[in-house]
Amino acid sequence: xxxxxxxLYNTITIFFLVLTVIVFLCSLGxxxxxxxxxxxxxxxxxxxxxxxxxxxxxxTDTPSSTPTxxxxxxxxxxxxxxxxxxxxxxPIPTSSS
Length: 97
Description:
Order of helices and strands: H
Radius of gyration: 39 Å
Distance between the termini: 77 Å
Number of strands: 0
Helix content: 25-40%
């Protein structure tokens, strides 16, 4: 190895050592809860289930699953088909050699 390339390797080594220290400090900060973890690493919060509403005979203000009435669509005018012309007898070009 030449002495010229040693400076490059030393710079790369120092760069990765600094990155290692930064990752270590961020991990330590998340463990001690000084900084918040990213969204995908955040602890899962449980979803509170909604209570079931049992059917009763008495009328309630709870909406029912009865479908609502909608307007019937009005009939539209259908366009009559157009007359399609028949194909004509087109002469096939012949080669004139």
